[in-house]
Design a protein that fits this description.
The complex is a heterodimer of chains A (about 650) and B (about 130). Chain A is an alpha/beta fold and about 650 residues long. Chain A has five domains: about 120 residues, Rossmann fold; about 170 residues, 3-Layer(bba) Sandwich (FAD/NAD(P)-binding domain), CATH 3.50.50; about 60 residues, no CATH class; about 160 residues, FAD/NAD(P)-binding domain, CATH 3.50.50; about 70 residues, Alpha-Beta Plaits (2-Layer Sandwich). Helix content of chain A is about 25%, strand content about 25%. Chain B has one domain: Fumarate Reductase Iron-sulfur Protein, Chain B, domain 2. In chain B, helix 1 crosses helix 7. Chain B is globular, with a radius of gyration of 14 Å. The chains are: A alpha/beta (about 650), B mainly alpha (about 130). The interface between A and B is medium-sized, with 21 and 21 residues.
Chain lengths: ~650, ~130
């Protein structure tokens, strides 16, 4: 028989205001095996923990139930406290009286009744607890960063600077990401390329960083400290070791009709291409879908002009397998598609563009060489209308329910830059709210209004109608004036909502990392663990976790790197002893458990089994406890009850249910 | 909320609290200049229970039932449905006859949204 102590926490008034904590402690004493019960305002405090220690010493407790907050919050605290007193940490159970009871109920009597039941279930479980020992696993001292934008680059540099090896896997032919497409950055208006390219070069030159561009993560297995990852290195058709980056192949390539992704499709590129001048690596790839050689077999101009003999039409995709201790997701974002927003005439008129397209138009390396001109007729616009919140803050299925966060600032930036360079151009911004929290951000927006004369109108645009004369008729509203506005514009710029990279869900699934309804990766705790995924060993950097600007992305990238470094600095990791075990006498060899196991931890083997004196060879399940994460899927799936989870055994669960139903 | 506000919520199936005051309805409305209470203001009248002013408004009869605001509202507030519900309140109170059901088949064609037809014979009594 266990000697159990029950400790009821008030959590200030969080629990005590709704639950009669004294009564819970009193009722605990009526439970079999409970020889000590008390309540205390803050059980997690030093004083609270020393009360637990004192009770263990005085009463010789063998099991402990703490009635407090969620085990996600303080289970580790109380387990450590018990361990310090010589009690096995797995003899501690938490009854969640806060999240599961006091916070969600109002009536004290009902809440107290439920609290007593939760306490009783925990006591029933402790009776069947057995001491468990955590194992150890080694840590591979190498990190993988998925995505080579500013988030991935910064994370990789910070990890590499600490002395650990890092691999960056980037899907496109070059690192640089969205930031490389931007012209200027707010609020200081530095040239984006000028501050990004040194970082790209630093990453490429770093002895601890390996960059795999034009590559994708194909398969991930393993667990924290020991991930095994298959990376597909797509065939570039150009030998990276031979190419000198002279660019002659791109100049001579006769196929020039493919939409240029880097310029958001505003102009075209050759079939053999590097996305932009400062690309890293400066080695082109052949887009085999556009390449005449691949389509018809007749061309080969690039191979003929290449002095280095780097063109290799026979190159095949290559799969490399690497092991990593930690994985950072930095997959970034894209702008949403606007096909559901017919009222803005995007796609109908070439002069209705997204802000990211304007970014390319303003850029000296862009389709208009940095001249602000209409894409329809090349004329200089005189009247430009910006529309905010296009697809952001929409609860319908056309857009996204969240605020994209960066649009207010980049619109102020665009408006200011245009007014600065072309003072004769009128700029009107239709907005719902101007959201500019951030250092020097509101000042920046006010400068656009006060110093540059940008006309901000509180209200939305209902429709943009292309006119026969090539202009755009904008129908909007000024809510402060309570007037409808009809404005003839030469160009309309849409502050289009951003969404996570379309590959985010695929990557998250491979990593068993959780993801929200908007396809943003979920953090382990929204406030206290913002750069970690709930999946151990997986970290988040940049917009894949939620909308953020460059300064925030860089800060988060550094934070993710620190978490990775903290993990890689350890030689051994303690493993969770709450893993599954198969009872070979009950196992009927059906493989159901192996099929449901998300971690590939279950294999089958033929083994000599002694079943009550009958010795025979049977095919039985075997769990690799290093791979098992204790999810319990197999215990539910097993038709013969042979699978059991240590620390959450079938008997323990049933005992809890019995206690609740008593 | 008064009984009338509740009725409007029930008839329209709209939750006025979802409005974020973006003004897209008023920006879209072809009858904006004819209206005394503008489409983006409908929710405010319902929220502060000023149904009397709303039902006395000429906006009820200036709305063309084009449903541009219903289509484009990013929050699903659908001002066109709110005003349609307010209109029904007025008509129900008067208890008058409007279009006869016998006349409906002649008005039907495949292009016309059914909702528009319904609004039409709520709006234009005989």
């Amino acid at each position: 028989m266990q000697k159990i102590g029950v400790f009821v926490c008030h959590c200030g008034s969080n629990i005590a205001a709704t639950v009669d904590v004294k009564k819970v402690a009193k009722m605990a004493l009526k439970e079999p095996g409970v020889c000590h019960a008390e309540d205390y305002p803050y059980m997690c405090s030093e004083a609270g923990q020393s009360r637990i220690a004192a009770a263990i010493a005085e009463k010789g407790l063998t099991g402990i139930v703490v009635c407090s907050c969620s085990p996600r919050m303080h289970e580790a605290t109380f387990r450590k406290a018990a361990e310090r007193c010589g009690l096995n940490p797995y003899m501690v159970e938490i009854a969640n009286l806060r999240e599961h009871c006091s916070w969600i109920h109002k009536d004290m009597e009902e809440a107290t009744e439920k609290a007593v039941i939760l306490m009783r279930a925990a006591v029933a479980k402790v009776h069947l607890n057995t001491p468990l020992q955590a194992g150890e696993s080694a840590v591979t001292k190498r990190a993988l960063v998925i995505g080579g934008g500013i988030a991935g680059i910064q994370t990789a540099i910070d990890i590499a600077d600490a002395g650990y090896k890092v691999d960056i896997v980037e899907k496109t032919p070059s690192i640089g990401g969205r930031m490389s497409q931007l012209d200027k950055t707010f609020p200081t208006l530095d040239c984006s390329a000028c501050i990004l390219t040194p970082k790209m070069v630093e990453a490429a030159a770093h002895e601890n960083i390996t960059i795999h561009t034009y590559s994708e993560v194909e398969k991930v297995s393993g667990f924290v400290g020991n991930f095994t990852v298959d990376i597909r290195k797509k065939a570039r058709m150009v030998d990276m070791t031979k190419c000198t980056g002279c660019g002659v192949c791109q100049e001579k390539c006769p196929s020039r009709k493919t939409a240029n992704e880097f310029n958001r499709g505003l102009n075209t590129r050759s079939a053999i291409y590097t996305p932009f001048a400062q690309a890293i690596p400066n080695v082109p790839v052949i887009d085999t879908e556009s390449c005449i050689k691949f389509k018809t077999g007749k061309c080969g101009v690039c191979a003929a002009v290449c002095q280095a003999g780097a063109i290799d039409y026979k190159q095949q995709d290559e799969i490399i397998t690497e092991t990593y201790g930690a994985i950072v997701v930095a997959t970034g974002f894209d702008t949403i598609k606007l096909d559901k927003y017919g009222e803005y005439a995007y796609g109908q008129s070439k002069d209705v563009i997204t802000s990211l397209e304007l970014e390319r138009i303003m850029n000296a390396a862009g389709p208009t060489k940095g001249h602000l001109e209409r894409l329809s007729d090349g004329k200089a616009p005189k009247e430009i209308v910006f529309i905010q919140c296009v697809g952001s803050r929409c609860s319908d299925d056309r857009g996204k329910p969240y605020c994209s966060k960066i649009c207010c600032m980049y619109t102020a930036k665009h408006a200011m830059l245009i007014r600065d360079k072309y003072p004769d151009v009128n700029v009107t911004v239709f907005y719902i709210d101007v959201r500019t929290p951030g250092k020097n951000f509101d000042e920046f927006y006010r400068r656009a209004v006060e110093d540059y004369g940008v006309n901000y109108v509180k209200g939305q645009v209902g429709k943009v109608a292309p006119q026969p004369d090539g202009s755009l008729l904008v129908q909007g509203v000024d809510l402060l004036d309570n007037k409808q506005i009809l404005k003839k514009a030469d160009m309309v710029v849409l502050a289009t909502a951003i969404e996570p990279n379309p590959d985010a869900r695929k990557i998250a699934t491979m990593l068993t990392a959780s993801i929200d309804t908007n396809n943003f990766l979920t953090e382990a705790h929204p406030k206290l663990r913002p750069v970690e995924s709930p999946t151990a060993g997986v970290f988040l950097s940049g917009v894949c976790q939620g909308p953020k600007d460059i300064p925030e992305t860089v800060a988060q990238a550094g934070a993710a790197a620190v978490k990775v470094i903290g993990l890689l600095a350890k030689d051994k990791l303690k493993t969770n002893p709450c893993t599954a075990q198969a009872d070979e006498l009950l196992c009927n060899g059906c493989s159901t458990c192996a099929n449901v196991c998300p971690y590939g931890a279950i294999t089958y083997e033929v083994r000599l089994v002694n079943d009550h004196g009958i010795r025979e060879e049977r095919r039985v399940a075997s769990v690799n406890s290093a791979l098992c994460q204790g999810c319990g899927a197999c215990t539910v799936a097993c038709p013969s009850g042979a699978m059991d989870l240590q620390g959450f055994s079938n008997r323990q669960i049933i005992a809890e249910v019995d206690a609740i139903c008593r | 909320m008064s009984k009338q506000s509740e009725l409007i919520a029930e008839i329209s199936g709209v939750n006025p609290l979802k409005c974020m005051k973006c003004g897209k309805c008023s920006a879209s409305c072809p009858s904006f200049n004819e209206m005394d209470i503008k489409p983006h203001q409908f929710v405010s009248y319902i929220q502060r229970d000023d149904i009397e002013a709303l039902t006395a408004s000429k906006s009820l009869y200036k709305c063309l039932s084009c449903f541009a605001c219903v289509e484009r509202c990013p929050r699903g507030v659908k001002p066109g449905k709110l005003i349609d519900a307010a209109r029904q309140l007025v008509l129900r109170q008067r208890g008058q006859e409007y279009l006869s059901p016998d006349e409906v088949p002649a008005l039907l064609d495949e292009e016309t949204p059914q909702q528009l037809l319904m609004s039409a014979f709520r709006k234009y009594r005989r």
